[in-house]
Amino acid sequence: MQTASTNICERMCNKSIYDISWLLNIPRSTVSGIITKWKQLGTTATQPQSGRPRKMTEWGQHMLKRTVRRSCQPSAESIAKDFQISCGLQINTTTVCRELHGMGFHGRAAASKPSITKCNAKHRMQWV
């Protein structure tokens, strides 16, 4: 596949978007997008990232997952403290909740299970 500058050169030679896409064997929408970007920005280079970069890296997510699995039912606040001690990265409790939710951990109440004593088992067997 050829570069965006080739598309622009073809456009400057008064070729249609259809002809350019046929010559370069790329979709018309791609050619049209490149030409529009050139007209608006004067370049086809990618623009800087918008927004703040993520605080958690893949390594941080891995360590957070290990911290959560190590203890049974910790709160987000205690997870953030443990994470700061083990990794040295200051992280907010809302960030912890967001990251854990993204990893598939959800805060849910445990199912209540009745304790089965000998007497309770006897009554259950009579009921059945």
Automatic annotation (TrEMBL):
Pfam families: HTH_Tnp_Tc3_2. InterPro entries: Homeodomain-like_sf, Transposase_Tc1-like, WH-like_DNA-bd_sf. It comes from the Eukaryota. Residues 63-127 form the Transposase Tc1-like domain. SUPFAM superfamilies: Homeodomain-like. This is Transposase Tc1-like domain-containing protein. It comes from Staurois parvus.
